[in-house]
Amino acid sequence: MDSAFAAIAERLKTATSVVALTGAGVSAESGIPTFRGPEGLWQHYKPEDLATPQAFARDPRLVWEWYDWRRQKIAPASPNPAHEVLAQLEQIVPDFLLITQNIDGLHRLAGSRRLIEMHGCIWQVRCLTEGTVYENREVPLSLLPPQCACGSMVRPDVVWFGESLSVEDQARAFAAAESADIFLTIGTSALVQPAASLPIVAKDRGAFVAEINPVPTPITPLVDSHLQGAAGVILPQILSILLKS
Ligand code: NAD
């Protein structure tokens, strides 16, 4: 495994353009449950049954109770070594872009700035009447569902299943994947589109694609290197080799 780490470190040293895609697994070591692990379930509901516009239209209070539970899990969490290494890579690689599917805000907290939060941020809410977006960090929420100053209900400013991503974010993410020398896919089950297509696009355009995950995923057969294990363990080892070389 050490030689696989050294090989990636060597490539990172000479790369000009690196894209990293992260998913819920990168925050698992910060204590935030992934969707597909047993802890991802809340009161026997599947996230796919709650993170939808239909679920919110049917029962906004239920959806907000779930988000309130998730916010309580995320609020005390700190970035882990994986978040920190990704923030450092931004300083080392000339053209680095981090694309996350996570809504927990931990990459920003770790210092990443060249960052696309594809699915939004759990600490932002959007007024259903005015469309205004603003920060709300109240934990736990005192009013469910929470309200805007105008009296209208707000929703989490996140992208739900069946909703479209920002056109601008999507274009930027795909353009970066198309021109990347190295594409790292970290802690994602590679099931949620369109993020799951990014490593495939990068591979088609000639990037070296490496995956970090404790288990194989649907894209494992396509990647150049599958590093099996926890992101918070593997990324610091790669960075340490890179800094010594
Ligand atoms: P997912 O739950 O489908 O998959 C998580 C992946 O991480 C799995 O493949 C798992 O094997 C891997 N993993 C677990 N521990 C790991 C570790 N220590 N290091 C590396 N990998 C590890 O999550 P997903 O692919 O991100 O997609 C589902 C959706 O989940 C996304 O839309 C995302 O917005 C949402 N989500 C976000 C958070 C968060 O913001 N922290 C948490 C749960 C779900």
Distance between the termini: 18 Å
The largest pleated sheet is described as: 6 strands, parallel
Q: Could you say which small molecules are bound to this protein?
A: nicotinamide-adenine-dinucleotide
Nearest-integer average pLDDT: 95
Shape: elongated
Strand content: 15-25%
Describe the structure.
The chain is α/β, with parallel strands linked by helices. It has 2 domains: 2-32 and 78-119 and 165-244, 3-Layer(aba) Sandwich (Rossmann fold); 47-76 and 126-158, 2-Layer Sandwich (SIR2/SIRT2 'Small Domain'). Helices cover 36% and strands 19% of the residues. It contains 9 helices and 9 strands. The protein has helices at 2-14, 47-50, 53-58, 60-74, 81-92, 106-110, 167-179, 198-204, 231-244; strands spanning 17-22, 95-100, 115-117, 120-127, 133-135, 154-158, 182-186, 208-213, 225-228. The strands form 2 sheets. The chain has a 6-stranded parallel beta sheet, with helices on both faces. Helix 8 links the parallel strand 7 and strand 8 (208-213). Helix 5 packs parallel to helix 9 (231-244) and helix 7 runs parallel beside helix 8. The protein is elongated. The two termini are 18 Å apart. The model has no long low-confidence stretch (mean pLDDT 95). The structure holds nicotinamide-adenine-dinucleotide.
